[in-house]
Write a structure and sequence with these properties.
15% strand, alpha/beta, 17 helices
Length: 454
C-alpha cells in the first residue's frame, strides 16, 4: 500500500480485508491499494490525499449533470419520506415510476412510449433478451431466438449481458456466451480496417450483419443489438457508411433492432439519444447511467408501440425485479431529466461544448504518439501508436496504462482501453474545463513519450 496518510491507509486496509472490487485483479489491488475518492463537485473529484482531479469519464460514463446537485439529493430525501419503497408487481404502481415513464417517452424517439424499469443497464439487456423471445413466441415464431451482437460491444456483466457483449476476456470466465447469442465484427476502422478506406470498411462491417442473418436463417434471428457508438470498447465511432447500410439491412429482414443507449443516451452525443444522432429507428432501447446521472442506480428498456401491441396479446410477462421502478430512483431520474431539459444542457453540448471539445482534442493529432483522434458529442478517443502512417502499435509496452497512470498522477481521469485513451466528461463541462482537460492530456502524452524513450 502506497499511502502515508493514516486515514487513507485505514480505508485501504478495509479494502484489502473485506472488499472484492469489480473488474479488478484482487491480489494486485491489495499490493497497490485503491485510490479513495471522498467527494466531488461539478466536474471535479477529490481523493483522500487531498488531490483535485478533473473527471474526464463522468464517473463511469454516467454523471451527466455533474456532481453536487442538491436538487437530486432533495428529490431522493423527499421521496424517501413520502414512499421509500413499493413495487410495481401485482397490479400496483406509484406516481414517480409512472411520471418517469412519461418523461422518458417525451424525450425518446417518436413511437417509443413504454418503459420497463430495471436496476441497471445489464438488467435492461437481460429484460430485452427475454422480451424479444417472448415477443416472437406470441407472434407464433418461437424459433426466432438468436440475438446478433458485435465483437467488442459492451452490454453488461450479468450472464445475458456479458454474453451479448463481445468481450472475449469476459466470455473466457464462466463458459459464455450462452446459446442463442452470436457476434459479428465491429466497425473499428482504426484497429481493423487494414487497407480499406473507412467508408469501404464501414460497408464491409455492416454487411457482416446480413451475412450472419443469412447464415443463422432469418427464421431463427430475433434481434440485432448494438451501441450507436461503442463506449467501453474504446469509443468506436463507426465510419459514416456504417449505420446507413445497417438500416438498409434491418429494413430488409424481419428482425428487431435494439439500440443499447446506456452510454449514448441522455445527451452524450448532443442529442437525447444516439439513435437520434444517427437517425436510427430502434424497436427497443436499453437505458441506464445518464438516466439518473449515476446518483442512484436505475436502468430500463424503452419499447416501441408496435412491439407493445404484440406483448399486450401475450398474457403475463414473467419477469421483473424487486427494484423495478424504485420510487426513490424514479424521483431522482425525474429531477435529473428536468435539469437536463430546463437547463438546456443537451442543447449546449450540441451547439457549444461538443464542437469545442472535438476541435481542441483534434489538436493532439500533431503529437508523435497520436495515430488518430476521433469523437462525437462529448465522447473522445485518442489512439496511441508507434507509427502514425502504418497505425502500428508499440508492442508489449502497455502504453495505454502508462498514459493512464500519468493522467491519474496529474489530476485527470482519462481511461485506457488497450492503447486507446478515452474520455466522456460530464455534460456540464465548460470550455475552460475542456481547455484544462486537453492541456493535461497533452502533458500526459508528453510524459508517456518520454517514458517510452527513456
Ligand atoms: N450497456 C452499455 C452500452 C454499457 O456501457 C451496460 C450496458 C451495463 O450497465 P450496468 O448498469 O449494468 O453496468 C453498460 C455499462 C467500462 C465500463 O469499463 C462500462 C460499463 C460498465 C462498467 C465498466 O467502460 N458500461
Amino acid at each position: 500500500m502506497t499511502s502515508n496518510n493514516p486515514q487513507t491507509r485505514e480505508w485501504q486496509t478495509l479494502s484489502n480485508e473485506h472488499h472484492l472490487a469489480p473488474f479488478s485483479d484482487f491480489k494486485q489491488l491489495k499490493e497497490k491499494g485503491p485510490r479513495i475518492i471522498t467527494n466531488a463537485e461539478g466536474v471535479y473529484l477529490w481523493d483522500s490525499e487531498g488531490n483535485k482531479i478533473l473527471d474526464g469519464m463522468a464517473g463511469l460514463w454516467c454523471v451527466a449533470i455533474g456532481y453536487g446537485r442538491e436538487e437530486l439529493a432533495e428529490a431522493a430525501s423527499k421521496q424517501m419520506r413520502e414512499l421509500p419503497y413499493y413495487n410495481l408487481f401485482f397490479q400496483t404502481a406509484h406516481p414517480p415510476a409512472l411520471e418517469l415513464a412519461k418523461a422518458i417517452a417525451d424525450v425518446a424517439p417518436q413511437g417509443m412510449n413504454h418503459v420497463f424499469f430495471t436496476g441497471s443497464g445489464s438488467e435492461g439487456n437481460d429484460t430485452m433478451l427475454r422480451m424479444v423471445r417472448h415477443y416472437w413466441a406470441i407472434k407464433g415464431q418461437p424459433k426466432k431466438k438468436t440475438i446478433i451482437s458485435r465483437v467488442n460491444g459492451y452490454h453488461g456483466s450479468t450472464v445475458a449481458g456479458a454474453s451479448l457483449g463481445g468481450m472475449t476476456y469476459m466470455h473466457e470466465q464462466g463458459d459464455l456466451p450462452i446459446p442463442g447469442i452470436v457476434h459479428i465484427p465491429q466497425p473499428y476502422w482504426f484497429g481493423e480496417g487494414g487497407d480499406m478506406t473507412p467508408d469501404e470498411f464501414g460497408i464491409w462491417a455492416a454487411n457482416q450483419l446480413e451475412e450472419k442473418i443469412l447464415e443463422v436463417g432469418v427464421d431463427n434471428v430475433g434481434a440485432f443489438i448494438a451501441e450507436p457508438i461503442q463506449g467501453a470498447g474504446g469509443v468506436i465511432v463507426p465510419p459514416e457508411s456504417y449505420w446507413p447500410r445497417i438500416k438498409e439491412i434491418l429494413a430488409k429482414y424481419d428482425i428487431l433492432f435494439v439500440a443499447d443507449e446506456v452510454i449514448c443516451g441522455f445527451g452524450r452525443t448532443g442529442e437525447w439519444f444516439g439513435s437520434d444522432f444517427y437517425g436510427l429507428k430502434p424497436d427497443m432501447m436499453t437505458i441506464a447511467k445518464g438516466l439518473t446521472s449515476g446518483y442512484i442506480p436505475m436502468g430500463g428498456l424503452v419499447v416501441r408501440d408496435e412491439v407493445v401491441a404484440v406483448l399486450n396479446e401475450g398474457g403475463d410477462f414473467n419477469h421483473g425485479f424487486t427494484y423495478s421502478g424504485h420510487p426513490v430512483a424514479a424521483a431522482v431520474a425525474l429531477e435529473n431529466i428536468r435539469i437536463l431539459r430546463d437547463e438546456k444542457i443537451i442543447e449546449r453540448v450540441k451547439a457549444e461544448t461538443a464542437p469545442y471539445l472535438q476541435k481542441r482534442l483534434r489538436e493532439l493529432n500533431d503529437h508523435p504518439l497520436v495515430g488518430e483522434v476521433r469523437g462525437v458529442g462529448l465522447l473522445g478517443a485518442i489512439e496511441l501508436v508507434q507509427d502514425k502512417a502504418t497505425r502500428a502499435r508499440y508492442v508489449g509496452k502497455g502504453v495505454g496504462m502508462i498514459c493512464r497512470q500519468f493522467c491519474f498522477d496529474n489530476g485527470l481521469i482519462m481511461r485506457a482501453v488497450g492503447d486507446t485513451m478515452i474520455i466522456a466528461p460530464p455534460l456540464v463541462i465548460t470550455k475552460e474545463e475542456i481547455d484544462e482537460l486537453v492541456s493535461k492530456a497533452r502533458k500526459c502524452l508528453d510524459l508517456t513519450l518520454s517514458a517510452l524513450q527513456g
